[in-house]
Amino acid sequence: MNFKLSIILAIITTIPLYLLIPSPHVSDEQLTAHLHNKVVLLSGADNGIGEELAYQLAGYGAKLVLVGESSEKLSRIREGVISRGTPEIDIFAILFDFTDVNITEEVVKQTVKKFGGLDYLVSNHDVTTPGPFLSLSYLQNPDFLEQVFKENLFSHIQLALHALPYLEKQNGHMFVTSSLCGEIPLYGTTSTLHSSSKHGLNGFFYSLQQELIARQSPVSITVGAFGFVWTRELSYIYAEGNPKLGWLSGSEEDAARGVLEAYVTRPLTMTFPTLPGIVHRMISYFTPQLLKILRVTQDSF
After folding, report:
1. Residue 273 in this model has a pLDDT that exceeds 70
2. Pairwise CA distance, residues 47 & 246, whole Å
3. Whole-angstrom distance between the N-terminal and C-terminal Cα of the chain?
4. Global confidence as pTM
5. How many whole angstroms separate alpha carbon 185 and alpha carbon 30?
6. What are phi and psi of 224, to 5 degrees?
7. Burial of 80 (0-12, 13-18, 19+ CB in 10 A)
8. What's the pLDDT tens digit per position in 162-183?
9. Measured between alpha carbons, how far is 208 from 212 in angstroms, rounded to an integer?
């Protein structure tokens, strides 16, 4: 396809997609109605948008099960949630290593034992593997590969599998935190290994969506296609901000709000930030050679 024509097609496709993507307004009252006294299992509560999700969920009266790998961070977040008015009895922290896939069921069992059931699952844990796959030998180590896929894919599958019977009793919902690099290759902002694990995550949960629909299950799934989110961790690294990213990034507060709203609207997918996500998809589909230019720019950050 002619390069100029490809760019034109990408542009004219992006504009209507952005304008037509539904973004229904969800009020605080609606969120309270859907989340108050609901049991929410939040994995990856100790990093990325997990902490912000914990605070926002608590703000709408949810009963929280916070799962993470850092006892220090979990303790701090738990105290932060309590300081915002959540009763101690309504928050439960579980220290867990998600590379231990065989006992992922224990997370669900402890949740049900504590609160008697499960309404919502936020499968948010993740391990990042930055760097070029072919240039870093440790990324190619079979044991390292296995650990990454255990945490980024297999543990999500097992967590969903064991949560599903309890979610079906409550007409529940799953939100799976994934990435744009699970739909298109984004070398330069992430690694080949990380992108491939996210492709696997998307492939499984988009397929599981269809299986649940075919079974007429009361459980629905939203797959979150996240781009660059300005998290607390990044704000520490870039204390003065990073103006190079500009409109390409979104705040963790807005990202977390989008996750919460998905429990009301239950979309099949949620893209955040919306416009950069659509632009990147269209460039990938119509003008993949243009991504080479973007990658050089990203590598210069």
Report:
1. yes
2. 23
3. 31
4. 0.84
5. 36
6. -90, 115
7. middle
8. 999 999 999 999 999 998 888 8
9. 6
Residue that the structure tokens 């605070």 belong to: 55
The residue whose two tokens read 């993470």 is 68
Q: Which amino acid is at 9?
A: L
In the structure encoding, which two tokens stand for residue 134, read together?
A: 């072919």
